[in-house]
Write a structure and sequence with these properties.
The complex is a heterodimer of chains A (about 280) and B (about 250). The longest helix of chain A has 28 residues. Chain A is built from seven helices and ten strands. Helix content of chain A is about 35%, strand content about 25%. Chain A starts with 9 loop residues before the first strand and ends in an 8-residue tail after the last helix. Chain A is of the alpha/beta class and about 280 residues long. Chain A is globular and about 50 Å long. In chain A, about 40% of the residues are buried. Chain B contains ten helices and no strands. In chain B, helix 3 packs across helix 8. The chains are: A alpha/beta (about 280), B mainly alpha (about 250). At the A-B interface, strand 6 and helix 2 of A face helix 7 and helix 8 of B.
Chain lengths: ~280, ~250
Protein backbone atom coordinates (compact mmCIF):
# COMPACT_ATOMS: atom_id res chain seq x y z
CA UNK A 1 0.00 0.00 0.00
CA UNK A 2 1.52 3.29 -1.03
CA UNK A 3 0.63 6.24 1.14
CA UNK A 4 1.99 9.53 -0.10
CA UNK A 5 0.61 11.18 3.03
CA UNK A 6 -0.64 14.22 1.15
CA UNK A 7 -3.94 14.13 3.01
CA UNK A 8 -2.39 13.82 6.49
CA UNK A 9 -2.26 16.88 8.79
CA UNK A 10 0.84 19.04 8.92
CA UNK A 11 3.08 18.28 11.92
CA UNK A 12 5.82 20.84 11.39
CA UNK A 13 5.39 24.03 9.48
CA UNK A 14 8.31 26.34 8.70
CA UNK A 15 7.39 29.78 7.37
CA UNK A 16 9.88 32.23 5.83
CA UNK A 17 12.69 31.40 8.22
CA UNK A 18 15.84 33.43 7.75
CA UNK A 19 18.86 33.06 9.98
CA UNK A 20 21.82 35.42 10.20
CA UNK A 21 24.98 35.00 12.20
CA UNK A 22 27.46 37.70 13.08
CA UNK A 23 30.38 37.20 10.71
CA UNK A 24 33.65 36.37 12.38
CA UNK A 25 36.09 39.29 12.45
CA UNK A 26 33.86 41.51 10.30
CA UNK A 27 31.05 43.96 10.86
CA UNK A 28 28.62 42.21 8.52
CA UNK A 29 26.50 39.13 8.99
CA UNK A 30 26.42 35.75 7.30
CA UNK A 31 23.06 34.62 6.04
CA UNK A 32 22.83 30.93 6.89
CA UNK A 33 19.21 30.37 5.93
CA UNK A 34 17.40 32.42 3.35
CA UNK A 35 13.60 32.52 3.53
CA UNK A 36 12.92 28.82 4.08
CA UNK A 37 9.36 27.53 4.03
CA UNK A 38 8.42 23.87 4.26
CA UNK A 39 5.73 21.60 5.66
CA UNK A 40 6.25 18.15 7.10
CA UNK A 41 3.17 15.96 7.45
CA UNK A 42 2.43 13.75 10.40
CA UNK A 43 4.19 10.38 10.17
CA UNK A 44 6.36 11.53 7.30
CA UNK A 45 10.09 10.84 7.01
CA UNK A 46 11.79 13.84 5.48
CA UNK A 47 15.48 14.27 4.65
CA UNK A 48 17.29 17.56 4.40
CA UNK A 49 20.10 16.91 1.93
CA UNK A 50 22.65 19.55 1.07
CA UNK A 51 26.29 20.62 0.97
CA UNK A 52 28.25 21.31 4.16
CA UNK A 53 27.45 24.62 5.78
CA UNK A 54 24.18 25.14 3.92
CA UNK A 55 22.32 25.60 7.20
CA UNK A 56 20.30 22.38 7.39
CA UNK A 57 21.44 21.64 10.95
CA UNK A 58 20.65 25.24 11.86
CA UNK A 59 17.10 24.76 10.62
CA UNK A 60 16.81 21.58 12.67
CA UNK A 61 17.89 23.45 15.79
CA UNK A 62 15.36 26.19 15.06
CA UNK A 63 12.55 23.64 14.62
CA UNK A 64 13.59 22.03 17.92
CA UNK A 65 13.56 25.41 19.67
CA UNK A 66 17.27 25.37 20.51
CA UNK A 67 17.97 28.51 18.44
CA UNK A 68 15.68 31.43 17.66
CA UNK A 69 15.31 32.30 14.00
CA UNK A 70 16.27 35.85 12.95
CA UNK A 71 13.05 36.05 10.97
CA UNK A 72 10.06 33.86 10.25
CA UNK A 73 8.26 31.31 12.39
CA UNK A 74 7.98 27.60 13.07
CA UNK A 75 4.82 25.91 14.28
CA UNK A 76 4.61 22.37 15.61
CA UNK A 77 1.14 20.82 15.75
CA UNK A 78 -0.29 24.28 15.24
CA UNK A 79 1.61 25.92 18.09
CA UNK A 80 4.50 28.36 17.59
CA UNK A 81 7.92 27.10 18.75
CA UNK A 82 9.42 29.22 21.53
CA UNK A 83 12.14 27.09 23.05
CA UNK A 84 12.60 23.35 23.47
CA UNK A 85 9.45 21.25 23.76
CA UNK A 86 10.75 17.95 25.12
CA UNK A 87 7.29 16.38 25.28
CA UNK A 88 6.78 16.72 21.53
CA UNK A 89 10.22 16.85 19.97
CA UNK A 90 13.34 14.83 20.65
CA UNK A 91 16.76 15.09 19.06
CA UNK A 92 19.21 12.44 18.00
CA UNK A 93 22.58 14.05 17.41
CA UNK A 94 25.59 12.96 15.43
CA UNK A 95 28.06 12.82 18.25
CA UNK A 96 26.98 10.19 20.58
CA UNK A 97 25.47 12.35 23.30
CA UNK A 98 25.32 9.56 25.83
CA UNK A 99 26.99 10.83 28.99
CA UNK A 100 30.21 8.84 29.56
CA UNK A 101 29.94 9.21 33.35
CA UNK A 102 26.68 7.27 33.45
CA UNK A 103 25.92 3.68 32.50
CA UNK A 104 23.42 3.08 29.68
CA UNK A 105 20.64 2.60 32.22
CA UNK A 106 21.57 5.80 34.06
CA UNK A 107 21.70 7.66 30.76
CA UNK A 108 18.13 6.65 30.01
CA UNK A 109 17.06 7.46 33.57
CA UNK A 110 18.51 10.93 33.45
CA UNK A 111 16.86 11.59 30.07
CA UNK A 112 13.49 10.55 31.49
CA UNK A 113 14.12 12.76 34.51
CA UNK A 114 14.93 15.74 32.26
CA UNK A 115 11.82 15.09 30.20
CA UNK A 116 9.59 14.65 33.27
CA UNK A 117 8.57 11.02 32.74
CA UNK A 118 7.10 9.36 35.89
CA UNK A 119 9.72 7.21 37.58
CA UNK A 120 7.58 4.06 37.43
CA UNK A 121 7.90 4.02 33.63
CA UNK A 122 11.68 4.37 33.44
CA UNK A 123 12.70 0.74 33.74
CA UNK A 124 10.13 -0.62 31.29
CA UNK A 125 10.74 2.02 28.65
CA UNK A 126 14.50 1.57 28.87
CA UNK A 127 14.19 -2.20 28.45
CA UNK A 128 11.75 -1.94 25.53
CA UNK A 129 13.85 0.61 23.66
CA UNK A 130 17.09 -1.32 24.13
CA UNK A 131 15.38 -4.54 23.07
CA UNK A 132 14.14 -2.81 19.91
CA UNK A 133 17.71 -2.10 18.82
CA UNK A 134 19.08 -5.40 20.15
CA UNK A 135 21.21 -3.85 22.89
CA UNK A 136 19.48 -5.21 26.01
CA UNK A 137 22.48 -6.97 27.42
CA UNK A 138 24.52 -3.78 27.51
CA UNK A 139 22.16 -1.99 29.89
CA UNK A 140 24.75 -1.78 32.67
CA UNK A 141 27.72 -0.99 30.44
CA UNK A 142 29.31 2.42 30.20
CA UNK A 143 29.26 4.13 26.78
CA UNK A 144 33.05 3.91 26.45
CA UNK A 145 32.82 0.13 26.73
CA UNK A 146 30.82 0.01 23.49
CA UNK A 147 31.93 0.47 19.88
CA UNK A 148 30.90 3.63 18.03
CA UNK A 149 28.21 1.71 16.14
CA UNK A 150 26.79 0.19 19.32
CA UNK A 151 26.80 3.57 21.01
CA UNK A 152 24.85 5.13 18.19
CA UNK A 153 22.39 2.24 18.32
CA UNK A 154 21.84 3.00 22.03
CA UNK A 155 21.62 6.70 21.24
CA UNK A 156 18.90 5.90 18.70
CA UNK A 157 17.09 3.80 21.31
CA UNK A 158 17.20 6.68 23.77
CA UNK A 159 15.69 9.01 21.18
CA UNK A 160 12.88 6.50 20.60
CA UNK A 161 12.37 5.86 24.32
CA UNK A 162 11.58 9.54 24.84
CA UNK A 163 8.50 8.70 22.76
CA UNK A 164 7.88 12.07 21.17
CA UNK A 165 5.75 12.42 18.04
CA UNK A 166 8.54 14.24 16.26
CA UNK A 167 12.18 13.19 16.10
CA UNK A 168 14.87 15.46 14.68
CA UNK A 169 18.00 13.64 13.60
CA UNK A 170 21.16 15.61 12.94
CA UNK A 171 23.39 13.32 10.85
CA UNK A 172 23.06 10.53 13.39
CA UNK A 173 25.12 8.07 11.35
CA UNK A 174 27.82 10.42 10.07
CA UNK A 175 30.49 9.06 12.41
CA UNK A 176 29.88 5.45 11.37
CA UNK A 177 31.49 3.42 8.60
CA UNK A 178 29.31 2.85 5.56
CA UNK A 179 28.38 -0.76 6.31
CA UNK A 180 27.29 -0.09 9.88
CA UNK A 181 25.48 2.91 8.57
CA UNK A 182 23.43 0.97 6.02
CA UNK A 183 22.50 -1.70 8.55
CA UNK A 184 21.44 0.92 11.11
CA UNK A 185 19.47 2.64 8.36
CA UNK A 186 17.60 -0.57 7.60
CA UNK A 187 16.85 -1.05 11.30
CA UNK A 188 15.67 2.51 11.56
CA UNK A 189 13.34 2.11 8.59
CA UNK A 190 11.83 -0.98 10.19
CA UNK A 191 11.48 0.59 13.65
CA UNK A 192 9.86 3.72 12.36
CA UNK A 193 7.37 1.94 10.15
CA UNK A 194 5.88 0.50 13.35
CA UNK A 195 5.74 3.73 15.31
CA UNK A 196 4.45 6.21 12.71
CA UNK A 197 6.62 9.02 13.99
CA UNK A 198 7.41 12.22 12.14
CA UNK A 199 11.10 12.41 11.35
CA UNK A 200 13.27 15.19 10.00
CA UNK A 201 16.66 13.80 9.14
CA UNK A 202 19.72 15.80 8.14
CA UNK A 203 22.28 13.99 6.03
CA UNK A 204 25.09 14.30 3.52
CA UNK A 205 24.58 10.82 2.19
CA UNK A 206 22.62 10.42 -1.03
CA UNK A 207 21.95 6.71 -0.53
CA UNK A 208 20.80 7.27 3.05
CA UNK A 209 18.42 10.03 1.94
CA UNK A 210 16.84 7.95 -0.83
CA UNK A 211 16.65 4.79 1.26
CA UNK A 212 14.99 6.38 4.30
CA UNK A 213 12.87 9.30 3.09
CA UNK A 214 9.36 9.83 1.91
CA UNK A 215 10.48 13.20 0.60
CA UNK A 216 13.93 14.69 0.13
CA UNK A 217 14.49 18.43 0.38
CA UNK A 218 17.59 19.22 -1.66
CA UNK A 219 19.34 22.41 -0.53
CA UNK A 220 21.46 25.01 -2.25
CA UNK A 221 24.83 26.17 -0.97
CA UNK A 222 24.83 28.96 1.62
CA UNK A 223 22.70 31.00 2.02
CA UNK A 224 20.61 27.86 2.25
CA UNK A 225 17.41 27.62 0.24
CA UNK A 226 15.43 24.61 -0.86
CA UNK A 227 16.26 23.85 -4.45
CA UNK A 228 14.00 20.89 -5.13
CA UNK A 229 11.71 18.41 -3.41
CA UNK A 230 11.96 14.78 -4.49
CA UNK A 231 9.18 12.30 -3.75
CA UNK A 232 10.52 8.81 -3.13
CA UNK A 233 7.11 7.12 -2.94
CA UNK A 234 8.12 3.73 -1.57
CA UNK A 235 6.32 2.09 1.35
CA UNK A 236 8.03 1.51 4.70
CA UNK A 237 9.62 -0.66 5.99
CA UNK A 238 11.98 -0.84 3.06
CA UNK A 239 14.04 -3.91 2.43
CA UNK A 240 17.68 -3.68 1.37
CA UNK A 241 16.48 -4.90 -2.04
CA UNK A 242 15.10 -1.42 -2.66
CA UNK A 243 18.67 -0.27 -3.04
CA UNK A 244 19.15 -2.66 -5.96
CA UNK A 245 16.19 -1.36 -7.95
CA UNK A 246 16.48 0.87 -10.97
CA UNK A 247 14.26 3.45 -9.30
CA UNK A 248 16.67 3.77 -6.37
CA UNK A 249 19.53 4.44 -8.76
CA UNK A 250 17.51 7.02 -10.68
CA UNK A 251 16.51 8.89 -7.54
CA UNK A 252 20.06 8.85 -6.28
CA UNK A 253 21.34 10.22 -9.57
CA UNK A 254 18.66 12.87 -9.61
CA UNK A 255 19.74 14.03 -6.15
CA UNK A 256 23.36 14.01 -7.22
CA UNK A 257 22.65 16.07 -10.32
CA UNK A 258 20.85 18.65 -8.18
CA UNK A 259 23.59 18.74 -5.58
CA UNK A 260 26.71 18.71 -7.71
CA UNK A 261 26.80 22.39 -8.60
CA UNK A 262 25.83 23.37 -5.05
CA UNK A 263 28.65 21.39 -3.52
CA UNK A 264 31.11 23.02 -5.95
CA UNK A 265 29.73 26.41 -5.07
CA UNK A 266 29.94 25.71 -1.34
CA UNK A 267 33.58 24.76 -1.80
CA UNK A 268 34.37 27.88 -3.78
CA UNK A 269 32.62 29.99 -1.14
CA UNK A 270 34.92 28.53 1.47
CA UNK A 271 37.96 29.23 -0.67
CA UNK A 272 37.02 32.83 -1.50
CA UNK A 273 36.20 33.64 2.11
CA UNK A 274 39.88 33.16 2.94
CA UNK A 275 39.11 32.39 6.56
CA UNK A 276 37.58 29.07 7.62
CA UNK A 277 33.80 29.24 7.33
CA UNK A 278 32.67 28.45 10.85
CA UNK A 279 29.22 30.01 11.07
CA UNK A 280 26.18 27.97 10.21
CA UNK A 281 28.02 24.72 9.68
CA UNK B 1 50.67 -0.42 35.92
CA UNK B 2 51.80 -4.03 36.17
CA UNK B 3 52.31 -5.70 39.53
CA UNK B 4 56.05 -5.99 38.98
CA UNK B 5 56.58 -2.29 38.30
CA UNK B 6 54.25 -1.34 41.19
CA UNK B 7 56.44 -3.52 43.38
CA UNK B 8 59.58 -1.81 42.09
CA UNK B 9 58.28 1.75 42.61
CA UNK B 10 56.98 0.87 46.08
CA UNK B 11 60.35 -0.67 47.02
CA UNK B 12 62.21 2.46 45.92
CA UNK B 13 59.81 4.67 47.86
CA UNK B 14 60.18 2.60 51.02
CA UNK B 15 63.96 2.54 50.57
CA UNK B 16 63.94 6.34 50.33
CA UNK B 17 62.10 6.67 53.65
CA UNK B 18 64.45 4.11 55.23
CA UNK B 19 67.50 6.04 54.01
CA UNK B 20 66.13 9.30 55.45
CA UNK B 21 65.62 7.63 58.81
CA UNK B 22 69.06 6.05 58.52
CA UNK B 23 70.68 9.43 57.84
CA UNK B 24 68.80 10.91 60.81
CA UNK B 25 70.02 8.07 63.01
CA UNK B 26 73.57 8.37 61.64
CA UNK B 27 74.08 12.11 62.08
CA UNK B 28 72.58 12.16 65.58
CA UNK B 29 74.50 9.17 67.00
CA UNK B 30 77.85 10.30 65.60
CA UNK B 31 77.22 13.73 67.09
CA UNK B 32 77.89 15.59 63.82
CA UNK B 33 74.69 17.64 64.35
CA UNK B 34 73.90 19.35 67.61
CA UNK B 35 70.80 17.86 69.33
CA UNK B 36 69.33 21.36 69.44
CA UNK B 37 68.88 21.30 65.64
CA UNK B 38 68.10 17.63 65.28
CA UNK B 39 67.55 15.51 68.38
CA UNK B 40 68.11 11.71 68.28
CA UNK B 41 65.23 9.52 67.14
CA UNK B 42 64.90 7.97 70.60
CA UNK B 43 64.46 11.38 72.21
CA UNK B 44 61.76 12.31 69.66
CA UNK B 45 60.05 8.96 70.21
CA UNK B 46 59.87 9.34 73.98
CA UNK B 47 58.80 12.99 73.57
CA UNK B 48 56.00 11.78 71.31
CA UNK B 49 54.89 9.15 73.83
CA UNK B 50 54.81 11.77 76.58
CA UNK B 51 52.92 14.13 74.28
CA UNK B 52 50.18 11.65 73.39
CA UNK B 53 49.58 10.99 77.07
CA UNK B 54 48.74 14.64 77.75
CA UNK B 55 45.16 15.80 77.24
CA UNK B 56 46.52 18.89 75.54
CA UNK B 57 47.73 16.80 72.57
CA UNK B 58 44.30 15.65 71.47
CA UNK B 59 42.70 19.02 72.06
CA UNK B 60 45.36 20.64 69.83
CA UNK B 61 44.80 18.01 67.13
CA UNK B 62 41.05 18.52 67.34
CA UNK B 63 41.35 22.30 67.03
CA UNK B 64 43.62 22.08 64.00
CA UNK B 65 41.66 19.40 62.14
CA UNK B 66 38.35 21.17 62.80
CA UNK B 67 39.84 24.43 61.54
CA UNK B 68 41.12 22.73 58.37
CA UNK B 69 37.79 21.02 57.75
CA UNK B 70 35.82 24.25 58.17
CA UNK B 71 38.19 26.26 56.01
CA UNK B 72 38.23 23.68 53.24
CA UNK B 73 34.46 23.29 53.27
CA UNK B 74 33.99 27.04 52.89
CA UNK B 75 36.63 27.17 50.13
CA UNK B 76 34.94 24.34 48.20
CA UNK B 77 31.40 25.66 48.48
CA UNK B 78 32.33 29.25 47.63
CA UNK B 79 34.79 28.20 44.91
CA UNK B 80 32.25 26.04 43.09
CA UNK B 81 29.47 28.59 43.54
CA UNK B 82 31.54 31.48 42.20
CA UNK B 83 32.83 29.34 39.32
CA UNK B 84 29.28 28.31 38.42
CA UNK B 85 28.10 31.94 38.37
CA UNK B 86 31.14 33.12 36.39
CA UNK B 87 30.77 30.41 33.75
CA UNK B 88 27.17 31.45 33.02
CA UNK B 89 28.60 33.56 30.19
CA UNK B 90 31.80 33.71 28.17
CA UNK B 91 31.93 37.43 28.90
CA UNK B 92 32.02 36.89 32.67
CA UNK B 93 34.75 34.28 32.26
CA UNK B 94 36.79 36.72 30.17
CA UNK B 95 36.36 39.39 32.87
CA UNK B 96 36.79 37.41 36.09
CA UNK B 97 39.03 34.45 35.32
CA UNK B 98 42.17 36.63 34.97
CA UNK B 99 41.19 38.60 38.10
CA UNK B 100 40.89 35.44 40.19
CA UNK B 101 44.07 33.97 38.70
CA UNK B 102 46.13 37.09 39.41
CA UNK B 103 44.77 37.48 42.94
CA UNK B 104 45.87 33.90 43.57
CA UNK B 105 49.38 34.87 42.43
CA UNK B 106 49.64 37.43 45.28
CA UNK B 107 51.27 35.92 48.40
CA UNK B 108 48.21 36.16 50.63
CA UNK B 109 50.44 35.49 53.63
CA UNK B 110 51.09 39.24 53.52
CA UNK B 111 47.47 39.78 54.51
CA UNK B 112 47.60 37.37 57.45
CA UNK B 113 47.92 40.17 60.06
CA UNK B 114 44.68 41.61 58.70
CA UNK B 115 42.89 38.31 59.32
CA UNK B 116 44.13 38.39 62.93
CA UNK B 117 42.91 41.97 63.19
CA UNK B 118 39.45 41.16 61.83
CA UNK B 119 38.85 37.73 63.33
CA UNK B 120 40.99 37.67 66.48
CA UNK B 121 43.64 35.24 67.62
CA UNK B 122 41.24 32.25 67.91
CA UNK B 123 40.57 29.60 65.24
CA UNK B 124 38.25 31.92 63.24
CA UNK B 125 41.14 33.93 61.81
CA UNK B 126 42.78 30.68 60.61
CA UNK B 127 39.51 29.46 59.12
CA UNK B 128 39.07 32.73 57.21
CA UNK B 129 42.70 32.86 56.07
CA UNK B 130 42.85 29.22 54.92
CA UNK B 131 39.40 29.41 53.31
CA UNK B 132 40.48 32.49 51.35
CA UNK B 133 43.64 30.78 50.14
CA UNK B 134 41.88 27.50 49.43
CA UNK B 135 39.11 29.22 47.48
CA UNK B 136 41.30 30.08 44.49
CA UNK B 137 42.35 26.64 43.24
CA UNK B 138 38.75 25.41 43.56
CA UNK B 139 37.35 28.42 41.67
CA UNK B 140 40.01 28.37 38.94
CA UNK B 141 39.80 24.64 38.28
CA UNK B 142 36.02 24.65 38.37
CA UNK B 143 35.91 27.55 35.90
CA UNK B 144 38.31 25.65 33.62
CA UNK B 145 36.28 22.46 33.96
CA UNK B 146 32.85 24.00 33.48
CA UNK B 147 33.82 26.13 30.52
CA UNK B 148 35.27 23.19 28.59
CA UNK B 149 32.19 20.95 28.78
CA UNK B 150 31.29 19.55 25.35
CA UNK B 151 28.59 21.77 23.82
CA UNK B 152 26.73 18.71 22.52
CA UNK B 153 26.14 17.35 26.01
CA UNK B 154 24.52 20.63 27.00
CA UNK B 155 22.46 20.89 23.83
CA UNK B 156 21.16 17.36 24.34
CA UNK B 157 20.20 18.15 27.95
CA UNK B 158 18.41 21.31 26.84
CA UNK B 159 16.52 19.50 24.09
CA UNK B 160 15.29 16.98 26.67
CA UNK B 161 13.99 19.81 28.85
CA UNK B 162 16.57 19.71 31.66
CA UNK B 163 16.24 22.45 34.28
CA UNK B 164 19.23 24.59 35.23
CA UNK B 165 19.87 22.65 38.41
CA UNK B 166 19.45 19.25 36.71
CA UNK B 167 21.85 20.31 33.97
CA UNK B 168 24.41 21.29 36.59
CA UNK B 169 23.94 18.14 38.62
CA UNK B 170 23.83 15.57 35.82
CA UNK B 171 25.84 17.17 33.01
CA UNK B 172 28.03 20.14 33.91
CA UNK B 173 29.35 18.90 37.23
CA UNK B 174 30.13 15.30 36.25
CA UNK B 175 31.65 16.43 32.94
CA UNK B 176 33.92 18.89 34.74
CA UNK B 177 34.53 16.64 37.74
CA UNK B 178 38.02 15.32 36.90
CA UNK B 179 39.29 18.91 36.56
CA UNK B 180 37.36 20.08 39.64
CA UNK B 181 38.83 17.21 41.64
CA UNK B 182 42.36 18.48 40.96
CA UNK B 183 41.25 21.85 42.34
CA UNK B 184 39.73 20.23 45.43
CA UNK B 185 42.93 18.36 46.10
CA UNK B 186 45.21 21.37 45.69
CA UNK B 187 42.79 23.42 47.79
CA UNK B 188 42.84 20.84 50.56
CA UNK B 189 46.60 20.89 50.92
CA UNK B 190 46.72 24.68 50.68
CA UNK B 191 44.10 24.91 53.46
CA UNK B 192 46.10 22.42 55.50
CA UNK B 193 49.33 24.37 55.08
CA UNK B 194 47.61 27.71 55.68
CA UNK B 195 46.03 26.59 58.95
CA UNK B 196 49.31 25.16 60.28
CA UNK B 197 51.26 28.19 59.08
CA UNK B 198 48.71 30.57 60.55
CA UNK B 199 48.76 28.76 63.88
CA UNK B 200 52.55 28.93 63.95
CA UNK B 201 52.50 32.67 63.29
CA UNK B 202 49.76 33.72 65.66
CA UNK B 203 47.36 31.54 67.52
CA UNK B 204 46.02 30.52 70.91
CA UNK B 205 45.73 26.77 70.19
CA UNK B 206 46.35 24.04 67.63
CA UNK B 207 49.25 21.96 66.32
CA UNK B 208 51.04 24.93 64.72
CA UNK B 209 50.90 26.86 67.99
CA UNK B 210 52.43 23.89 69.83
CA UNK B 211 55.25 23.54 67.29
CA UNK B 212 56.10 27.25 67.62
CA UNK B 213 55.91 27.02 71.40
CA UNK B 214 58.23 23.98 71.55
CA UNK B 215 60.74 25.84 69.38
CA UNK B 216 60.58 28.94 71.59
CA UNK B 217 61.01 26.86 74.73
CA UNK B 218 64.04 25.12 73.21
CA UNK B 219 62.41 21.69 73.29
CA UNK B 220 63.46 20.28 69.89
CA UNK B 221 62.41 16.72 70.73
CA UNK B 222 58.84 17.81 71.38
CA UNK B 223 58.84 20.02 68.26
CA UNK B 224 60.02 17.12 66.08
CA UNK B 225 57.46 14.83 67.67
CA UNK B 226 54.75 17.23 66.45
CA UNK B 227 56.34 17.57 63.01
CA UNK B 228 56.59 13.80 62.53
CA UNK B 229 52.95 13.53 63.58
CA UNK B 230 51.90 16.13 60.97
CA UNK B 231 53.91 14.32 58.28
CA UNK B 232 52.12 11.08 59.16
CA UNK B 233 48.71 12.76 58.91
CA UNK B 234 49.59 14.35 55.57
CA UNK B 235 50.85 11.11 54.04
CA UNK B 236 47.74 9.28 55.22
CA UNK B 237 45.39 11.95 53.84
CA UNK B 238 47.28 11.99 50.57
CA UNK B 239 46.78 8.23 50.24
CA UNK B 240 43.08 8.58 50.96
CA UNK B 241 42.66 11.40 48.41
CA UNK B 242 44.64 9.50 45.74
CA UNK B 243 42.60 6.36 46.24
CA UNK B 244 39.40 8.36 45.91
CA UNK B 245 40.70 10.13 42.82
CA UNK B 246 41.72 6.91 41.08
CA UNK B 247 38.33 5.42 41.75
CA UNK B 248 36.50 8.43 40.32
CA UNK B 249 38.69 8.87 37.25
CA UNK B 250 37.57 5.62 35.69
CA UNK B 251 35.71 7.17 32.80
Amino acid sequence: MLDTGAERPVAVSVRNVTQRFAAQGAAGTVVALNDISLDVRRGEFVCLLGPSGCGKSTLLNIIGGLFDASEGSVTVAGQPVKGPSPKRISFIFQESTLYPWYSIRENFDVSFKFQGVPKAEWEGRTRDALAAVGMSRFIDHYPNQLSVGMRQRVNLARGLALDTDIILMDEPFAALDEQTRMVLGEDLSELLAKTGKTIIFVTHSLAEAVFLSDRIFVWTARPGRIKAIIEVGEAHPRSPDFMLTQRFGELRNECYALLRDEVRQAMSLERDAGAPASAGA
Amino acid sequence: MSDASTFTTRSIQIAFVAIMIGVWYGVTTTGSVTPLFLPPIDAVKSAFIRLVQTGQFWSAVRVTLTTIAQAWLIAVVLGILVAYLVTRSKFLVAVFEPVIASTFAIPLTLLFPLFILFFGIGPNSKVAYAATYGFFPVALNTIAGLSSVNEHYLRAARSMGASGFDTFRHVLFPAAFPVILTGLRVSFFISFASVLGGETLSSAAGIGKNIALAAELMEPARMYAWIVFVICITVTLNFVVSAFENRRREY
